[in-house]
């Protein structure tokens, strides 16, 4: 297995090939999120020499590029499925067109597909080792089981789905509710001609249930601090704020609160297995 420092170095190597805003987003805003997700994937595949991984709704494929950096000694096929429409010049991660060549350079196969309009994935039955669908289901305007059952179809028996999303009871959602805002549908974003944000968030038990309803077994989930941990450390790395700055004091108090009351941790990560038929 890889130590976090090795994953961090690979993440930094990928980030430095992006534009400045995207690099900062990866290294500061989403740093621990990526490390947490990549660690979870590696635990499922490190013992294999031939691997097929599909990232559904994977955005610009940062995780896949890091995996390529880490697993270049293995025979590994990487597939990125996304519609890419929200990745334009206004997006802090930049335009898909600008990063497309980088994905091809990492030998990542790009599948441009809107999984809401067309949920049939191009893969054969029982073909894929691991499918990730990370921070995606909350963006779907419909029941997520339609795509999860399709993921079930393409996974090999014994294959793994890794799913993550925001916790409906998370501290961010609670604070928004207290302040009189919608817990996850930002009003200004909702009023735009195109809406790319959250339609429906889930609790930890609901994430488990949608995997079970799709046929997966050995389902387990955990509440995570990775998003918040990155934001907390961001104050030091990027803004260079002192520990006694009032913003850091507030963040430290929230961090302590989340340690004492884990129910309010901001994100959930789930795993499920496609059962081996006897």
Describe this structure as you would to a colleague.
This protein is an alpha/beta fold. The chain has one domain: Vaccinia Virus protein VP39 (Rossmann fold), CATH 3.40.50.150. The protein is built from 11 helices and 7 strands. It has helices spanning 4-15, 20-29, 31-45, 62-70, 96-105, 145-154, 171-178, 187-190, 204-213, 226-237, 246-260; strands at 50-56, 75-82, 108-112, 128-134, 155-166, 217-224, 267-273. Strands 3-2-1-4-5-7-6 form a 7-stranded mixed β-sheet, sandwiched between helices. The longest helix is centred in the first third of the chain and has 15 residues, at 31-45. It is globular, with a radius of gyration of 19 Å. The two termini are 31 Å apart. The relative contact order is 0.13.
Name the average pLDDT.
89
Number of helices: 11
Rg for CA atoms = 19 Å
Gross geometry: globular
**What is the number of domains?**
1
Query: SSE string, helix = H, strand = E?
Result: HHHEHEHEEHEHHHEHHE
Number of strands: 7
> Which stretches are poorly predicted, pLDDT < 50 over at least 5 residues?
none
CATH superfamily: Vaccinia Virus protein VP39
CATH topology: Rossmann fold
Note the quaternary state here: single chain
Largest sheet: 7 strands, mixed
Distance between the termini: 31 Å
The residue fraction in helices comes out at 40-55%
Strand arrangement within the widest β-sheet reads 3-2-1-4-5-7-6
Question: Which CATH class applies here?
Answer: Alpha Beta
* Secondary-structure-derived class: alpha/beta
Beta-strand residue percentage = 15-25%
CATH architecture tag = 3-Layer(aba) Sandwich
């Amino acid at each position: 297995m890889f130590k976090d420092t090795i994953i961090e170095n690979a993440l930094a190597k990928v980030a430095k090939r992006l534009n400045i805003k995207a690099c900062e987003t990866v290294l500061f805003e989403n740093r621990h999120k990526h490390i947490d997700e990549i660690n979870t994937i590696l635990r499922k595949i490190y013992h294999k020499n031939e691997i097929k991984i599909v990232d559904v709704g994977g955005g610009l494929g940062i995780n896949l590029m890091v995996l390529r950096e880490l697993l270049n000694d293995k025979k590994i096929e990487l597939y990125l499925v996304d519609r890419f429409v929200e990745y334009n010049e206004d997006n802090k991660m930049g335009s898909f067109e600008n990063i497309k060549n980088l994905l091809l350079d990492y030998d990542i196969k790009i599948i441009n597909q809107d999984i809401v309009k067309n949920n049939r994935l191009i893969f054969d039955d029982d073909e894929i080792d691991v499918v990730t669908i990370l921070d995606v289901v909350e963006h779907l305007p419909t029941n997520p089981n339609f795509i999860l059952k399709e993921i079930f179809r393409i996974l090999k028996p014994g294959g793994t789905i890794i799913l993550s999303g925001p916790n409906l009871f998370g501290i961010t959602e609670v604070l928004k509710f207290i302040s009189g805002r919608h817990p996850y549908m930002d009003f200004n974003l909702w009023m735009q001609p195109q809406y790319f944000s959250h339609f429906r968030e889930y609790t930890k038990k609901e994430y488990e249930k949608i995997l079970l309803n799709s046929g997966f077994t050995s389902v387990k989930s955990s509440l995570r601090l990775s998003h918040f941990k990155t934001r907390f450390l961001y104050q030091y790395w990027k803004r260079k704020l002192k520990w006694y700055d009032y913003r850091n004091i507030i963040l430290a108090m929230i961090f302590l609160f989340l340690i004492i009351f884990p129910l309010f941790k901001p994100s959930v990560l789930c795993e499920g297995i496609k059962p081996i038929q006897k």
